């Protein structure tokens, strides 16, 4: 059985008995006092993919080169249609994340198969960044159904921060590691 993140030793014989417990031990004690069954908590294993398992991801953020305050809506639409034409042989999916007060949600929209579109609520108070990444994760989960028929996919997102985090492979963000783990499950 894999080691769970809360199974840290509660005492260290080399440590001074007057020192504060480490975070794992302190957290473990709170969970134990709350009578939470650790076997019901998923132990999320995420790893940075080795180079031979990586899929080629093309993150195109060229539309952001234009300054918002100096660019008309028509210019943005023109640039979007240029990008859309560039990926015209790809299956397109649109994602979004949003927050209203403390309510947070994410969605994935499949224009060619609207019945496959998905939406989900995130925990109250979650960030818009998390919602945007969740929208992309929803998309990746649903795309698996189409890999028999399509080989190339394009995911449209309006979140520059999410796209930059994916592009930079910022594995310090657990949501990014989870996205890459979803991607690794696709056939090469």
TrEMBL record:
Signal peptide: none annotated. One of its GO terms (molecular function) is RNA-directed DNA polymerase activity. CDD domains: Rnase_HI_RT_non_LTR. InterPro entries: RNaseH-like_sf (IPR012337), RNaseH_sf (IPR036397). The keyword Nucleotidyltransferase applies. The keyword Endoplasmic reticulum does not apply. Keywords: Nucleotidyltransferase, RNA-directed DNA polymerase, Transferase. This is RNA-directed DNA polymerase from mobile element jockey. It comes from Plakobranchus ocellatus.
């Amino acid at each position: 059985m894999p080691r769970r993140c809360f199974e840290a030793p509660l005492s260290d014989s080399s440590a001074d008995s007057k020192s504060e417990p480490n975070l794992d031990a302190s957290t473990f004690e709170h969970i134990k006092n709350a009578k939470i069954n650790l076997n019901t908590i998923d132990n999320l294993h995420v790893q940075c993919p080795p180079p031979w398992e990586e899929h080629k991801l093309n993150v195109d953020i060229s539309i952001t080169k234009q300054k918002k305050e100096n660019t008309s809506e028509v210019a943005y639409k023109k640039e979007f249609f240029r990008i859309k034409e560039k990926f015209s042989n790809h299956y397109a999916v649109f994602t979004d994340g949003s927050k209203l007060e403390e309510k947070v949600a994410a969605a994935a929209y499949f224009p060619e198969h609207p019945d496959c579109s998905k939406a989900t609520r995130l925990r109250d108070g979650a960030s818009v960044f998390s919602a945007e990444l969740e929208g992309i994760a929803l998309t990746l989960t649903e795309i698996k159904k189409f890999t028999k028929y399509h080989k190339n996919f394009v995911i449209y997102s309006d979140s520059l921060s999410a796209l930059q985090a994916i592009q930079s492979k910022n594995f310090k963000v657990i949501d990014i590691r989870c996205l890459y783990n979803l991607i690794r499950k696709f056939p090469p």
